[in-house]
Amino acid sequence: EPFGDPQLGKIKAPSCVFCHGQTGIAVNPSYPNINGQNASYLFQSMKDYQNGDRKGPLAEMMKAQLSRLNDEDLKDIAAYFSSQK
Amino acid sequence: EPFGDPQLGKIKAPSCVFCHGQTGIAVNPSYPNINGQNASYLFQSMKDYQNGDRKGPLAEMMKAQLSRLNDEDLKDIAAYFSSQK
């Protein structure tokens, strides 16, 4: 079953692109490339940031970025970046 | 400057391949693909696992996998998977 809607994900991910790039190729080598990454892994990583299972300065920033997104939003965003080459 | 030695990384990463695959393409969609991932990001992720900045069952397993590796090992392993297509 489709994991999320990539078209919706692109709209819901305005702030991600500042670090992860328009199509998921990171603007800086200390951030991960997420183009073509597994959607369920991306979703779980974002959940880990939301629930504090990842610590550290970048983790705090990610938690803030994701604070207003629900699970469906996260699945759409995951589907978007996962679908990028 | 080269971040690590991919040839050495391949030898030092015998257990990684069981989940991340021979060349970094995960055997299961809930694990990340790490082929072509940014080496410094991979290194920092492994350090986060070592120092407990990542929580959860998979994080505990990763911490155990990485427990006997030093920073140079991690840089070599990061270089190996980062160099894979």
Automatic annotation (TrEMBL), chains A, B:
<protein>
    <submittedName>
        <fullName>Cytochrome c553</fullName>
    </submittedName>
</protein>
<dbReference type="GO" id="GO:0020037">
    <property type="term" value="F:heme binding"/>
</dbReference>
<dbReference type="GO" id="GO:0046872">
    <property type="term" value="F:metal ion binding"/>
</dbReference>
<keyword id="KW-0349">Heme</keyword>
<feature type="domain" description="Cytochrome c">
    <location>
        <begin position="4"/>
        <end position="85"/>
    </location>
</feature>
<keyword id="KW-0479">Metal-binding</keyword>
<keyword id="KW-0732">Signal</keyword>
<dbReference type="GO" id="GO:0009055">
    <property type="term" value="F:electron transfer activity"/>
</dbReference>
<keyword id="KW-0249">Electron transport</keyword>
<keyword id="KW-0408">Iron</keyword>
<keyword id="KW-0813">Transport</keyword>
